[in-house]
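Figure 2 data, in text form.
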Amino acid sequence: EKRTVSQIEKNGYPDSVYINAAKIFQGIHTEKNTDKMLVRYGDNSESPMMAFKDEHSRRVSYELAFSALKYQDLLEQILLDSSAYPCYSIPDELSSLLVVMLYDLQDRKFQERKIFDEEERVAEVQEVGHYLYRYITKLAAALARCRIKHDALSIEYFVPETIWKQEQRASALPVCVWINTFKISLEDVIKDLEMKGLTKVESVSHFDHYTFAVDQHCHDVLVFPSSLREELLNLDLFADCKLLLQ
């Protein structure tokens, strides 16, 4: 059975995810000296309240916010070079939403976001989305110019070196997940994973790609190769919160 969330992700996110990602980004974005401040983000003195629809929405909201943080300098430069910023119709308090949605827009190769009938609309997201689409050609051109200038094949080139090294180390670590024993037993999880083509092995030293092991010290924890991370998160076991990423 196809889940609505998976379909939405291929075409963008629900409005609520953009709003929550913007609130997260507002609290973590890199503050710059006044003389170097090109994009203004308004006041973030108050901690924003966030209402997540479910655990999946929480995860993708944080992922989107931290992706925007990684490329904050590049995204700000694109906004400036395309003349999409400053924009007097959008207040500083929505600059975080502007940056977050711009990251997602370029990540979708500047393709229009599909809106689903059951999705609850948020006025600010609709406003910023329409504004970005007005500048879509100029935004894509600004990104292309930036990549040509730096001879960059992809935007990964613009990740700060310290973050790039951290990601390299993190990507090599095995993936650990908790079994939600209130919803499913270890035996049923193993049976489900084996039906999906994974093989249980004794330890991480026996890992191949489609393998997993039970943690030797915590029997409600499973360990997977790092290469399986994305595939795992698309399993029904995660969507139903029977497995939880550590």
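Caption note: The first strand starts at residue 175 and ends at 179.
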